[in-house]
Amino acid sequence: MDYKVAAVFDNYISAHLVLGRLQMENISCWLKDENTVTVDPILTNAVGGIKLLVAEPQLERALNLIRQNREAYQLRNACPKCGSLNIEVVSTPRSIRNWLGTIANILLNVGAPLPIKKVNHCFDCNHEYDIA
């Protein structure tokens, strides 16, 4: 059976949430490059992220479920500033914690990066706000 990429993720938590949702609907799917990205997150861009592969005959149904879940998230988390649903979870470079963590890792050669702060970003008014 052929498998096609239905979605790409930058972390294993988001990938597993969607994987579990699709498996609950009896959709045949699996994650590619999960171990590489989880063990060394710096390689995320190099390998193209964690890919959610879905059996080709079930791809359209899987894409519809992924879209519905995304739309439901957007409805629950509309921008508090302008009310827009044009939002997405992003890693913010504006957090002082992210900058200090990066500098400390470079200076101390610790190896393991500190967690990056993720926020909701509104693409209409550029407002960033905490994830509920």
Overall spatial form: flat
Largest sheet: 3 strands, antiparallel
- Roughly what is the average pLDDT, rounded to an integer? 88
Which strands sit side by side, in order, in the main sheet? 1-3-2
> How much of the sequence is in beta strands?
15-25%
Q: How many beta strands in the DSSP annotation?
A: 6
Q: Could you estimate the helical fraction of the residues in percent? A: 40-55%
Low-pLDDT stretches are none
Number of helices: 5
How many domains make up the coordinates? Answer: 2
SSE class: alpha+beta
Structure write-up:
- This is DUF2007 domain-containing protein.
- Residues 11-68 form the DUF2007 domain.
- By secondary structure, this protein is of the alpha+beta class.
- The protein has two domains: 3-76; 87-130, no CATH class.
- Helices cover 41% and strands 23% of the residues.
- The protein has five helices and six strands.
- The protein has a three-stranded antiparallel beta sheet. Strands 4-5-6 form a three-stranded antiparallel beta sheet, with no helix packed on it.
- It starts with a strand and ends with a strand.
Q: Topology, pairings included?
A:
Blueprint: E1 3-9, H1 12-24, E2 29-32, H2 34-39, H3 44-47, E3 50-55, H4 59-76, E4 87-91, H5 96-108, E5 118-122, E6 128-130
Antiparallel strand pairs: 1-3, 2-3, 4-5, 5-6
Write out key terms for the chains shown.
DUF2007 domain-containing protein; 132 residues; 3-stranded antiparallel beta sheet; alpha+beta
